[in-house]
Design goal:
Elements (H helix, E strand, L loop, with lengths): L4 E4 L19 E6 L7 E6 L8 E4 L16 E4 L19 E5 L3 E8 L5 E4 L4 E7 L1 E6 L2 E5 L3 E5 L5 E6 L4 E8 L4 E2 L21 E2 L13 E11 L2 E11 L4 E6 L4 E4 L18 E5 L2 E6 L2 E2 L13 E2 L4 E9 L13 E5 L4 E2 L5 H4 L5 E2 L1 E8 L4 E2 L1 H6 L11 E2 L2 E2 L2
Parallel strand pairs: 8-17
Antiparallel strand pairs: 1-19, 2-3, 3-19, 4-18, 5-26, 6-7, 6-30, 7-14, 9-12, 9-14, 10-11, 10-13, 12-20, 15-21, 16-20, 17-18, 21-22, 22-29, 23-28, 24-27, 25-26, 25-29, 31-32
Family: Belongs to the homogentisate dioxygenase family.
Cofactor: Fe cation
InterPro entries: Cupin_2, HgmA_C, Homogentis_dOase, RmlC-like_jellyroll, RmlC_Cupin_sf
């Protein structure tokens, strides 16, 4: 999204000499840009060579063989079960993510973390990380962003960054890792990238990095950076070692940088009758969209039925992360805080039994959920298989292959 920012010391003209006022030495200019110099970019000015490295070794990513959703059925995953008890205290927000679902366009993972992550760079695509609860700081080559419950944090591809949990509670992150860039829904944007009047949020709601970070905050030599990258048609991991710390930026400017947006600043679009999911969209990437359902006034036609109508996902898989409030349509299914439901293409789904009639007359829904719709089928990864409740598919009928659910 073309929204210009400038921070720190930058020269009056790009691609010209920029020198350290104390030593007279040149700073090193780095262009971080998308789509081969043809889209959004930023210029960063480093104290040291940003391309210098002294070692490269394999980062062995967790071995996982995602399984197709076959035979077809919906699922309910209890993500809090992935980090029981005090296990979060030893987990970091990057290396201990557990992948729940994924396909060739996007991977969805979850982590409850208590220790800082290493420096990390995703060279495959942008990340949109939703903070379920807890607090922390995202530090990057651009500066720092304080984050808390309800924040979406959008991190451009190849941004070197790290997560620092704060407080004595887990930093719970729901990570959406794309194989593409992630932008606000294009119908909200002008030709030149401004959020339009009908958009449910605007530039005032976005929080950019504070900084850049000061020299004394980034000491050390031979610094490790964990990198996810493309390899052999799949995903590989490498640990690059740089002779100086990557957070040596004295200034930057441009339209490409991490930013945070809190879900409480999303202004819901409502109507007299039930609004379809595109009315709740916030971001999109290649092959998927991200929507959110927030506390809102609901349908006010005198004969309206506020909960969703039953619907078939003809072209998409629907993934809903329930992160707050009381989700009316799912009452009686076992879904609660930290749950994820998967409603795959080819399956007709909708409210749980009784919710349809029960919603009539409701004027307000106090619910909070993040939805990802994908246009290619999602496979079940290790985290999803481990968190499956084993019962959800039969919750509409009250019985499954073993009989009454009880």
């Amino acid at each position: 999204m073309a929204y210009y920012r400038s921070a720190g010391a930058v020269p009056p003209k790009r691609h010209t000499q920029h020198r350290d006022p104390e030593t007279g030495g040149l700073y090193f200019e780095e262009l971080m840009g998308e789509e081969g110099f043809s889209s959004d970019s930023s210029l960063l000015y480093h104290r040291h060579l940003p391309s210098a490295m002294v070692d490269s070794r394999v980062w062995r990513l967790p071995e996982d063989k995602p399984e197709p959703n076959h035979p077809l059925k919906p699922y309910h995953f209890r993500l809090h079960d992935l980090f029981p008890g005090e296990s979060w205290r030893q987990a970091d927000p990057v290396r201990d993510r557990r992948t729940v679902l994924g396909n060739a366009d996007v991977r969805i993972s979850y982590v409850a973390a208590g220790v800082p992550s290493p420096l990390y760079r995703n060279g495959i695509g942008d990340e949109c990380v939703y903070v379920e609860s807890g607090g922390g700081v995202l530090e990057s080559v651009f500066g720092s962003i304080e984050v808390g419950a309800g924040d979406y944090v959008v991190i451009p591809r190849a941004t070197t960054h790290r997560w620092l949990p704060t407080g004595d509670a887990p930093l719970r992150l729901y990570a959406i890792e794309a194989n593409s860039h992630i932008t606000p829904a294009k119908r909200y944007l002008s030709t030149y990238g401004q959020l339009l009047e009908h958009a449910p949020f605007c530039e005032r709601d976005l929080r950019g990095p504070v900084g850049p970070l000061l020299a004394e905050d980034v000491p050390g030599e031979d610094t490790e950076v964990y990198v996810k990258h493309r390899v052999g048609g799949g995903i590989g991991g490498t640990v690059l070692v740089t002779p100086t710390h990557p957070f040596d930026v004295v200034g930057w400017d441009g339209c490409l940088y991490p930013y945070a947006f809190n879900i409480s600043d999303y202004e819901p679009i409502t109507g007299r009758v039930h609004q379809p999911p595109p009315a709740h969209q916030v971001f999109e990437g290649n092959g998927f969209v991200i929507c959110n359902f927030v506390p809102r006034k609901v349908d006010y036609h005198p004969l309206s039925i506020p909960v969703p109508y039953y619907h078939s996902n003809v072209d998409s898989d629907e993934v809903m992360f329930y992160t707050g409030g009381d989700y009316e349509a799912r009452k009686g299914s076992g879904i609660g805080q930290g749950s994820v439901s998967l409603h795959p293409g080819g399956h007709t789904h909708g409210p749980q039994p009784g919710a349809y009639e029960r919603s009539i007359g409701a004027e307000f829904f106090d619910e909070l959920a993040v939805m990802v719709d994908t246009f290619r089928p999602l496979d079940l990864a290790e985290g999803g298989r481990a968190a499956d409740d084993g019962r959800y598919a039969w919750s509409w009928s009250g019985r499954g292959p073993q009989g009454d659910l009880g």
